[in-house]
């Protein structure tokens, strides 16, 4: 069948919830920071496959590792057999993880890594309840859905198990003028946790708290360091395990290998995925050896987790990050991009806040009169940018935030090219609303 016929059948063959995302761009190839469309056009990618292809699309070293791996093994399953790429990857990861996080359960996706983290916490503490933070996104399987609150539509009719409680995530933007954001957010946290423990659940019933060290799908909110340190302190005080969901922030996205390093906080358990194998399904639940030893055989298992080809790809990803100095590039180019976005905000009334760390950046699109998030305007801007050759993606509770998350291999010249396109799309949109 031709591409045209295949696209015509998309809504007959794919579930709407899989087929209807933005922008459904038909592509035939990817390379570096670019997608190549079936229309013959080149698209500069500022989405990285939603923060997955951190080392760039189809990096030659990763592609070769996949080919070489397929010459040896295509499937585990780990435990039934054992293979070198899995063990080497565990060793390599243990050397770069925060603190004493050195023991791994490999799975296939971010939501599976989160499920594993929740199960590990509940099993080892023998406590039933979980606390998560409003706005967090941790996946769509039933356990992870129960702690995901970035959008209510994700939970509609799904009936999560109810053994979770939510308290507000840090919101530095709500800080009154003249007050320190860290002090403000810490005070709010102390009030919220006190109310929760007094009225809804006792702390000795709580197995864990789970959060993203930088809020992802919920709007790219960067919390104050003091807030995260207070979360750690509360967990320690009550014997509650702290889980960091670093599915989106991991593997260099923020300029550090993991976002935990920015805050000086080490969690008890971590969930990692996305950029780990540059697009191949691979994730991990990570904890100390001491904690993992309390999780006996049969309490959790996997058929596909730790696939040998995916492990080969992940080893190549670690090589590329080191050999090409991608952490340094992320800090340097990320600071450059942040400045360029700040300049755009000064020029365009429809840009609200500019925020982020490394190459995990975002801008709010707002109604210039009310200051409220403008999801309709955002989609118009994204569609215009796509027509001009740049792919951006969105997030936020009201779909009011544009993510700027290109591959970590991106150059300043490519940042200029992409943000010039975004600037043009913003100009067109503002002209249209002035006329109307």
TrEMBL record:
GO terms for molecular function: transaminase activity. Keywords: Aminotransferase, Pyridoxal phosphate, Transferase. InterPro entries: Aminotrans_3, Aminotrans_3_PPA_site, Class-III_PLP-dep_AT, PyrdxlP-dep_Trfase, PyrdxlP-dep_Trfase_major, PyrdxlP-dep_Trfase_small. It comes from the Bacteria. Its cofactor is pyridoxal 5'-phosphate. Gene3D superfamilies: Aspartate Aminotransferase, domain 1, Type I PLP-dependent aspartate aminotransferase-like (Major domain). It holds the Pfam family Aminotran_3. Belongs to the class-III pyridoxal-phosphate-dependent aminotransferase family. This is Aspartate aminotransferase family protein. It comes from Pontibacillus chungwhensis.
